[in-house]
């Protein structure tokens, strides 16, 4: 059965060039990059090149990029570092501002910090999934420790105005972190131009490897390491560097920068898929159709359950997602759909389709054949009343 993969917000197929570079790092240039001998320094050079490639993709200086074991680790390190710099004896600041639609990497950390005595303020979104900037302005004050708001939402693709959010935070002397995981590689991103103090992203979202996360901390900002050990990453993260993962991430970044030119083609395929699926009765787009990444559409099929839809699609080789991958298996609407106040009869049947540069017109044709047939079949035999 031919695979039709439309779940690229969960993870992406590693590019052949990435696999080749990682294979070289595993078989030829496998030395410890902290070693002083030439073999080790050859590996160090490859790490440095990757750091430059990643920095070029996100508008950062290479020295401000550091490597973690995953995006979640990088989020935890960045946020805890900003908190450590703001919680002073003379003025303890305990308010953390985030949004109601954050990825679990941020929201679960916030729950942990709540138990540690911090106040968590979640800025709401509207029915289109767009952030309430007025509520943010009202919430930020001199007692705020930090603002951490995602660049683009993983379920809807809705893009938040990070430059405006930074301006609001900085206007009150508050540092800003963004989880840019769903934005990097899909839209042009410039950390320095936006003004963020810290940022996080993951290469496996743009055809790089899993098991590695990328952190950004602007020049002059001292990170408090989550993992203590050796002096690697200029003291920002202890442990021998994952050279294959780092090298693969750098190659993925260079390719992603080159392929930003593919955005119109990807958007065109997404729009064709979406417009045709909206011809199905009682079908709706969840989230803004304007301010979103070009590869993502979240479509609610009213009076159905997403898990049943995904099962039928999978039987035909079509891969999609019921919202966030980490909440797969739940029969409750995701926290994003709840935050957007999507009616239950639509939210329960929400399916996320996410494309990549490897998506083809044939993939879209297959989806347009399989999805309507699956919806018709389910509505005939398994209607769900709400």
Give structural notes:
The protein is of the alpha/beta class. It folds into 2 domains: 4-12 and 262-381, Aspartate Aminotransferase, domain 1 (Alpha-Beta Complex), CATH 3.90.1150.10; 16-258, Type I PLP-dependent aspartate aminotransferase-like (Major domain) (Aspartate Aminotransferase, domain 2, 3-Layer(aba) Sandwich). The protein is 40% helix and 13% strand. It has 13 helices and 12 strands. The strands form 3 sheets. The protein has a 7-stranded mixed sheet, sandwiched between helices. The protein has a 3-stranded antiparallel sheet with strand order 9-10-12. Strands 1-11 form a two-stranded parallel sheet. Strand 6 (176-179), helix 7 (191-194) and strand 7 form a beta-alpha-beta unit. Helix 1 (16-27) packs antiparallel against helix 8 (243-258) and helix 2 (38-58) packs parallel to helix 8 (243-258). The longest helix is centred in the first third of the chain and has 21 residues, at 38-58. The radius of gyration is 21 Å and the shape is globular. The protein starts with a strand and ends in a 5-residue tail after the last helix. The mean pLDDT is 94.
Task: Please describe the structure with a list of short key phrases separated by commas or semicolons.
386 residues, alpha/beta, Aspartate Aminotransferase, domain 1, Aspartate Aminotransferase, domain 2, 12 strands, globular
Compile the SSE list and pairings.
Layout: E1 4-5, H1 16-27, H2 38-58, E2 65-68, H3 71-86, E3 95-99, H4 104-115, E4 119-123, H5 133-139, E5 144-148, H6 162-171, E6 176-179, H7 191-194, E7 198-201, E8 213-217, H8 243-258, H9 263-277, E9 283-285, E10 296-301, H10 306-315, E11 318-319, H11 335-339, H12 344-347, E12 350-354, H13 361-381
């Amino acid at each position: 059965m031919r695979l039709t993969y439309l779940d690229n917000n969960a993870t992406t197929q590693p590019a052949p060039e990435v696999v080749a570079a990682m294979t070289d790092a595993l078989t030829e240039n496998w030395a410890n990059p902290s070693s002083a001998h030439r073999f080790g320094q050859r590996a160090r050079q490859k790490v440095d090149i990757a750091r430059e490639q990643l920095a070029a993709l996100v508008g950062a200086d290479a020295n401000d990029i550091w490597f973690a074991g995953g995006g979640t680790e990088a989020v935890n390190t960045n946020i805890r570092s900003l908190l450590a710099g703001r919680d002073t004896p003379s003025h303890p600041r305990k308010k953390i501002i985030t949004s109601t639609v954050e990825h679990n990497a941020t929201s679960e950390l916030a729950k942990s910090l709540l138990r540690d005595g911090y106040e968590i303020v979640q800025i709401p979104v509207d029915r289109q999934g767009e952030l309430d900037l007025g509520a943010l302005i009202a919430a930020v004050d001199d007692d705020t420790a930090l603002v951490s708001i995602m660049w683009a939402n993983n379920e809807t693709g809705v893009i938040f105005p990070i430059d405006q959010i930074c301006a609001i935070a900085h206007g009150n002397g508050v540092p800003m972190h963004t989880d840019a995981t769903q934005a990097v590689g899909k839209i042009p991103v410039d950390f320095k131009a936006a003004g963020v103090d810290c940022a996080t992203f993951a290469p496996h979202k743009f055809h790089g490897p899993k098991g590695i996360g990328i952190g950004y901390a602007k020049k002059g900002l001292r990170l408090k390491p989550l993992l203590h050990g050796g002096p690697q990453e200029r003291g920002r993260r202890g442990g021998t560097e994952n050279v294959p993962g780092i090298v693969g991430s750098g190659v993925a970044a260079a390719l992603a920068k080159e392929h930003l030119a593919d955005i119109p083609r990807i958007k065109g395929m997404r729009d064709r898929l979406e417009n045709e699926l909206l011809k199905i009765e009682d079908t709706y787009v969840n989230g803004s159709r304007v301010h979103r990444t070009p590869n993502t559409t979240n479509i609610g099929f009213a009076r159905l359950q997403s898990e049943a839809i995904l099962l039928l699609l999978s039987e035909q080789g079509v891969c999609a997602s019921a919202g966030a991958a980490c909440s797969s298996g739940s029969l409750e609407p995701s926290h994003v759909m709840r935050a957007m106040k999507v009616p239950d009869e639509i939210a329960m049947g929400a399916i996320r389709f996410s494309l990549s540069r490897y998506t083809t017109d044939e993939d879209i044709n297959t989806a347009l054949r399989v999805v309507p047939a699956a919806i018709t079949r389910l509505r005939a035999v398994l209607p769900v009343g709400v």
